[in-house]
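Throughout our pipeline, every protein is held as a single compact record rather than as scattered files. Such a record has a labelled line for the sequence and another for the backbone structure tokens. The remainder of this section carries one protein's record, kept here as part of the documentation:
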Amino acid sequence: MSTAQSSGWAPYLDPDERLLWEGAPLPGIRFRASDIPKSLFGSFFGGFALFWIYMASTIGGNASGHGPTGVIANLFPLFGLPFLAVGGYMAFERFFWEAYVRTKTRYALTDKRGFVAKSALGRKLESWPITPDTQLEYQPGEAATLFFAQEEKRGNKGRRYTVKRGFEYIANGEEIYRLMRQVQQGTLPEADTLTAGLSTWRGGTGSGHGTSRT
């Protein structure tokens, strides 16, 4: 049985497609410099919601508890709770959620495409071709990130924005980057001569360390 078949990627590969590497994001909460503006805005948003709830509670406490007016006054502070939840998520909670999503994320690189599979909220598999024209953005480090695709999305108000796609927070990112460059240049070695030592996720560990798959 080939490595692709034993690892579960075979149904998603073309007949002549070769699995080069499979992995997963490193576990834990991660923070980027680009997260600072959103966290600051979330803190301000949540703080304003707390102020709203406090002031509304004060008004409700001074109002009579009898009749429609008193009931509305007592319920008024509750309108601030959704805004408090949104602010808390933007400032802090999203880091825990993103960490959880990464535990449900798997990556794979073939001699044609890069795959990202997620199973946090339902199962989703996406792939993007790796060609000589593919723009690579490599962010080195112990938890390296390698972007190789972009998606344009539309916000709630119709504003368009770009989302980068790729392998985030992976071990041995430099080796994966070199391997992807070989895919681009068409200089991959034969299957039995691929260099060992690439990071590979092994079921149940999530450590991201292992050997290359061919």
Q: What stands out?
A: The beta strands are 19-23, 105-110, 113-118, 124-129, 137-139, 144-154, 160-170. Helices lie at 3-7, 36-62, 67-75, 81-103, 173-185. Confidence is low (pLDDT under 50) at residues 195-214. The longest helix spans residues 36-62.
